Amino acid sequence: MEKHIRLPLTQEDIAGLRAGDYVYLTGELYTARDAAHKRMAETLDAGGTLPFEIAGQTIYYMGPSPARQGHVIGSAGPTTSSRMDKYTPRLLDLGMKGMVGKGRRSSEVIAAMCRNQAVYFAAVGGAGALLSKCIKKTETVAYEDLGTEAIRRLTVEEFPVIVVIDAAGTDLYGNPPC
Amino acid sequence: MIREISVETVADAVCELCIQANHFLSTDMRNALARAAEQESNPLASRILGQLEENLQIAAEESIPICQDTGMAVVFLKIGQDVHFFDGDLTEAVNEGVRRGYTEGFLRKSVVGDPLLRQNTGDNTPAVLHCSIVPGNQVEITVAPKGFGSENMSRIFMLKPADGTEGVKEAIVQTVAEAGPNACPPLVVGVGIGGTFEKAALLAKEALTRETGAPSALPHIRALETELLERINALQIGPAGLGGNATALAVHINTYATHIAGLPLAVNLCCHVNRHAGCVL
Questions:
Q1: Domain ranges of chain B
Q2: Inter-axis angle of helices B27-39 and B43-62, to 10 degrees?
Q3: I need a surface site. Which of A177, B72, B147, B211 has the fewest CB within 10 A?
Q4: Per-residue model confidence as pLDDT tens digits over B142-191
Q5: Class of the domain covering A2-165
Q6: Which of B63, B122, B240 sits opposite A68 (nearest CB)?
Q7: Angle at alpha carbon of residue B60, lines to A140 and B22, rounded to 5°
Q8: Where are the domains positioned within chain A?
């Protein structure tokens, strides 16, 4: 089924999404990949607070190539999500509602998605030039020293993704549901 | 007759090839993707293959890298034995080419200087450089930026001679099945069989730079490539791992002599952005 959804995701949106749905996202996404996840985990371990309010938000696992003059961003496709699995259940427990990446997730992540009612989307890996056209604005939120791995807030329009794991734990890649 | 080549010429060529490889997919890869799109019967897979084609067009027309993971720069130099380099250090010249290519070409800097301390070097150096000495007085340069979505799913196996051809086939199919959606299919599967531990890995990497779909010159290896491509596509992992016929575009196998006690096997997976650009000096 094809759907157009405005971010941040609402509980109604999440409840209505099924693995296999083709979705166009419009609104704000936060980027974070390996190094940013590690730093967020260290911050939480030390009793600190995250550099943005994660409750209700969607994280895009992506580190862009630099923008040429006149462009908002460079190439901007998804990276492999499973590298973030170690850090993800904790973020879901803090209220994160969506993730955009590519590839499989661990059973721990899927269980945390069911527990917290969250959705995992895949964007097409290796289509970073195409996906960059849907990104209208970027702003660095934190960890600027990490370069491409900094946390950015992206404003996207009609950003194409596919629901791979829904809030019931149904996994398009074939893991058994929760 | 010794031919003099300035290492600055090498740096210029590497710079240009880094930029070219990351914006323009080679004709053999584009043709292989177009063939896969023609043969795809799964509607979602067809839609994804269409997006990949559109992505290549945007990349070329607007100078946006095909993929944000512009890779670690793997550079092959085939150096004629009658060449003498002057003007400095050859390895440093290759790194200078990578540094300039990744900076001037707006390519992502994806290299950390120490694998454990993990500080980004800021200019995508150092390259991974493989040199070989060949007859003649020319220098053949191939730049193959390698993304790590697929690199992470690559495997090496030290099989036993008793495992034989069947063991090799099982290990290759298993590697692709385990990679599933993570390695960004449709893949090119580079395989190295024989040699030693490191030789097998290098054979597999070199196999990825072969013209996509060009068969091995050895009849028994050619038959193996054909059979494995069929078995891999029967997995129905499909483009982006969401189902479909196009799981792999090609299987390229390179072989080398090995020891009586061993059967080394390396499987180097590459995503559909199998970049390689080359020139001859």
A1: 3-22+66-146, 149-274
A2: 150
A3: A177
A4: 999 999 999 999 999 999 999 999 999 999 999 999 999 999 999 999 99
A5: alpha beta
A6: B63
A7: 65
A8: 2-165
